[in-house]
Design goal:
single chain, alpha/beta, 2 domains, 10 strands, about 40% helix, globular, binds 5'-O-[(R)-(carboxyoxy)(hydroxy)phosphoryl]adenosine, binds zinc ion
């Protein structure tokens, strides 16, 4: 079964062709980083406009690289939310028009479900497993019971981990997006030169909190002499990794889960990958990461999640009666 996935929830316009939920035939991502970079963050109106310009080219390129015509697509899958509403609507309207014109079903996908499904594109992962999803908009732990069912165990009480990277990068004048910039700066820094404390949520050992860290960095920058930005970047990255790893391992123990997936944009971070791998090894757990390009936003993960949703319930009337389907900016992850 060939699925065309479409993703436009934030600042990446993406389309992918995936066979049977596992085999990526093409995965095209047009990033808008350069247009948002002068503003130090994503400007929603600019994002929507760029999605409109990019989307036909991205879809045509995905079909061309996959070597298939539009007529061979069996199923369409599109991100319904969460995300920027104007941005979501571009992908949704395009997907609805294409599925309607082709007379094919359309599966709406929750963006978070896509991230959770991404590691399955490169690895065979047992169920149930634990998933740490750390992105720019979300940071949560899930017990993933099947390809279509995930239950949230805990989440962040304030900023997402990626958001903290982006805000700290801005404070340090390192540019946008902040994650890769902080990671690069940290390579030249010494994490021991700056002291940051791992934020904890009272009475909720599995919950995350990152806004205090950002404030601590702002305070450090008021010191005279200021610590070197590279040292702050290294200490910040270490502290975020500690917070993510400690809660992940605690949840793995509490829920007796041996297999761990780490997904979302922050999972591209090599320091975090090393720390999770070390901790998982010493606890006798297996850890799986999506390929780096499948950690940040992409449409292959949406096509994969869409395929499994369709397979789970092919007669779901929503998959054929989709013309009124709307985007939802704060769509909760309501799987089974
Ligand atoms: O999953 P994603 O592409 O979009 C959301 O759904 O939010 O994640 C983007 C986030 C950004 O905050 C970005 O700074 C962060 O992932 N990120 C990283 C790295 N690469 C991307 N954070 C830390 N280290 C990285 N190498
Ligand atoms: Zn995302």
């Amino acid at each position: 079964m060939l699925v065309l996935g479409i993703e436009s929830s934030c600042d990446e316009t993406a389309a992918a062709v995936v066979e049977d939920g596992r085999k990526i035939l093409s995965n095209v991502i047009a990033s808008q980083h350069e247009i948002h970079s002068p503003y130090g963050g994503i400007v929603p109106e600019l994002a929507s406009r760029r999605h409109v310009e990019n989307i036909p080219h991205v879809i045509n390129e995905a079909l061309r690289l996959a070597g298939v015509s539009l007529a061979r697509i069996d199923l369409f899958a599109v991100t319904r939310g969460p995300g920027l509403i104007g941005a979501l609507l571009i992908g949704l309207s395009t997907a609805k028009a294409m599925a309607w014109a082709q007379g094919r079903p359309l599966v709406p996908v929750n963006h978070l479900h896509g991230h959770i499904a991404a590691a399955g594109l490169s690895h065979d992962i047992n169920y149930p497993h634990l998933c740490l999803l750390a992105s720019g908009g979300h940071t949560s732990l899930y017990k993933v019971e099947s390809p279509v069912a995930a239950k949230e165990i805990s989440s962040t009480r304030d900023d997402a981990a990626g958001e903290a990277f982006d805000k700290v990068a801005r404070l340090l004048g390192l540019g946008f997006p902040g994650g890769p910039a902080v990671e690069a700066a940290a390579l030249n820094g010494d994490e021991e030169n700056v002291k940051l404390t791992e934020p904890k949520v009272k009475g909720a050992p599995l919950a995350f909190s990152f806004s205090g860290l950002k404030t601590a960095v702002r305070r450090l920058l008021m010191n005279e002499p200021k610590p070197a930005p590279e040292d702050i970047a290294a200490a910040f990255q270490k502290t975020v990794a500690q917070a993510l790893v400690s809660r992940t391992m605690l949840a793995a123990k509490e829920f007796s889960l041996k297999d761990i997936v780490v997904a979302g944009g922050v999972a591209r971070n090599a320091y975090l990958r090393n720390k999770v791998t070390e901790a998982a090894d010493s606890a006798g757990c297996n850890v799986f990461f999506p390929e780096p390009v499948l950690c940040t936003d992409n449409a292959a993960m949406i096509a994969a999640a869409g395929y499994f949703l369709y397979k789970d319930n092919p007669d779901d009337p929503r998959f054929t009666d989709f013309l009124k389907l709307d985007g939802v900016a704060n769509l909760p992850l309501n799987t089974k």
